[in-house]
């Protein structure tokens, strides 16, 4: 094992060459296929960004029209999937429901199990994933609140359709607020890809065994779920609520985060790669102000968040460790203003990250990458003689 380099958490290990996302953690740069995240967030739409990530180029008008039409056409899901949904208890976390429903697509479309299928067939799976994920996400929520599910409305754009499936009730008229749909679209763009993060690496490793794309994406959803990754957006709001309930003393929580005997961390702070600032956090902070004022919402936790950010950025502990607010620090505040319940925040992240996972899976397969199989440094017992149970 002398040849093996140990790198727990892969802090310094490149697992692949990739032409999808460029990230410079020192300079706070993020680009998808060469396009600045700031420009995409301001000028593009989520589906356009999805196309860019997956196929490598911004779509022409015709390409975009076909792509969105194809996605719209596949939003409906097999009726039997409702039976799977019905089997979940109402307290099931929507991330678990989402990953299960996505994985179930491998049963409804078994051709996805064939690693040698043609490009058209793979592309159809990609379209199906993008089309059905919002339906599953909204249905996971409906299961939780005990409301009947809504079917997709193909007259609406991607985010408006999702919002309607989430919030419309049979007894009430529901109109999608365009401010809400636009804000959601921008959040999804900001989450769309982030090179070899934990969930993306998971998608690539699972896919490298030539498991189906549905199984690979489902695994990515599970990796995203944890509080150190996508689950952080839920944890941030819970933390801010806890600070508020405790009287709003941010310093007390800052001290807790610095205390090495206390497992508490400042959620939404720190990043494996960004060591100066997270460019997505900058855009989101401004968006939080804009969206809340447009919607006329006054959420006291936005003030707590700003106070906490200011205090941390001026605290030696955080300065020394180069800990800055990450994408999740302000995203939850916007989700909350949009009416998204807290335990759906990570599901929203998954909706956003889906094109990135797909693009990375596709690149990995097209480049014929070998199976992902890290090595280890063994530190257990050396050879031992077996002792029968009655002698132990
Ligand atoms: N609060 C307090 N201390 C922290 C924090 C934090 N949020 N983050 C890192 N540190 C400390 C850590 O204790 C360590 O200190 P020391 O050197 O004294 O032992 C030092 O900073 C380096 O941290 P690390 O854990 O070695 O860094 P990492 O690259 O392994 O972890 C991280 C990165 C994002 C998991 C971590 O910063 C963290 O747990 N942050 C809070 C959770 C969070 O916001 N996650 C979302 C990440 S961004 C979006 C996403 O990926 O989903």
Describe the structure.
- The chain is mostly helical.
- 56% of the residues lie in helices and 3% in strands.
- It has 17 helices and 3 strands.
- It has a 3-stranded antiparallel sheet with strand order 1-2-3.
- Strand 2 (29-32) and strand 3 form a beta hairpin.
- Helix 5 packs antiparallel against helix 10 (213-225) and helix 10 (213-225) packs across helix 17 (345-366).
- The protein is globular and about 70 Å long.
- Bound molecules: carboxymethyl coenzyme *A.
- Carboxymethyl coenzyme *A is lined by residues 9, 197, 228-230, 232, 257, 265-272, 321, 323, 326-328.
- The site of carboxymethyl coenzyme *A has 20 residues, from helix 16.
Describe this protein with a few key phrases.
single chain; 392 residues; mainly alpha; Cytochrome p450-Terp, domain 2; 17 helices; 3 strands; 56% helix; 3% strand; binds carboxymethyl coenzyme *A
Give a short account of the largest sheet: 3 strands, antiparallel
Radius of gyration: 22 Å
Proportion of strand residues: under 5%
Distance between the termini: 32 Å
What is the fourth-level CATH superfamily of one domain? Cytochrome P450-Terp, domain 2
Globular, elongated, flat, extended or rod-shaped: what is the shape? globular
Helix content: 55-70%
Task: Determine the number of helices (DSSP H or I, runs of at least 4 residues).
Answer: 17
CATH architecture of one domain: Orthogonal Bundle
Could you name the CATH class of one domain? Answer: Mainly Alpha
CATH topology of one domain: Cytochrome p450-Terp, domain 2
Family: Belongs to the citrate synthase family.
Pathway: Carbohydrate metabolism; tricarboxylic acid cycle; isocitrate from oxaloacetate: step 1/2
Keywords: Transferase, Tricarboxylic acid cycle
Pfam family, one: Citrate_synt
């Amino acid at each position: 094992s002398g040849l093996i380099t140990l790198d727990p958490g892969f802090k310094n290990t490149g697992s692949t060459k990739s032409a999808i996302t460029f990230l410079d953690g020192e300079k706070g740069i993020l680009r998808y296929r060469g396009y600045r995240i700031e420009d995409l967030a301001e000028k593009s739409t989520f589906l356009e960004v999805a196309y860019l990530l997956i196929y490598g180029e911004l779509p022409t008008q015709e390409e975009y029209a076909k792509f969105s039409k194809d996605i719209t056409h596949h939003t409906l899901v097999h009726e039997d999937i409702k039976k799977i949904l019905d089997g979940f208890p109402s307290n099931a976390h929507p991330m678990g429901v989402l990953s299960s429903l996505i994985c179930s697509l491998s049963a409804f479309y078994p051709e996805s199990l064939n690693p040698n299928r043609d490009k058209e067939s793979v592309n159809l799976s990609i379209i199906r994933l993008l089309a059905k994920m919002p339906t599953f996400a909204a249905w996971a929520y409906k299961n939780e609140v005990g409301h009947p599910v809504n079917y997709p409305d193909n007259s609406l754009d991607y985010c408006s359709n999702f919002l309607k499936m989430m919030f419309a009730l049979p007894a009430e008229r529901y109109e999608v607020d365009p401010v809400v749909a636009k804000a959601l679209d921008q959040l999804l763009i900001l989450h769309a890809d982030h090179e070899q993060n934990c969930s993306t690496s998971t998608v690539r490793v699972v896919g490298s065994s030539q498991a189906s794309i549905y199984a690979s994406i489902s695994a990515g959803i599970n990796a995203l779920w944890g509080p150190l990754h996508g689950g952080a957006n839920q944890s941030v709001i819970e933390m801010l609520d806890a600070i508020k309930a405790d009287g709003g003393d941010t310093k007390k929580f800052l001290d807790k985060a610095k205390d090495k005997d206390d497992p508490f961390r400042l959620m939404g702070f720190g990043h494996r790669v960004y060591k100066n600032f997270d460019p997505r956090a900058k855009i989101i902070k401004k968006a939080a102000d804009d969206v809340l004022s447009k919607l006329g919402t006054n959420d006291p936790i936005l003030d707590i968040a700003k106070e906490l950010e200011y205090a941390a950025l001026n605290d030696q502990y955080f300065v020394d460790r180069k800990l800055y607010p990450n994408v999740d620090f302000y995203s939850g505040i916007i989700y909350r203003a949009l009416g998204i319940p807290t335990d759906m925040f990570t599901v929203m992240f998954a909706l956003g990250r889906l094109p990135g996972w797909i693009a990375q899976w596709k690149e990995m397969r097209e480049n014929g990458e070998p199976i992902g199989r890290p090595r280890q440094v063994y530190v257990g017992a050396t050879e031992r003689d077996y002792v029968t149970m009655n002698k132990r």
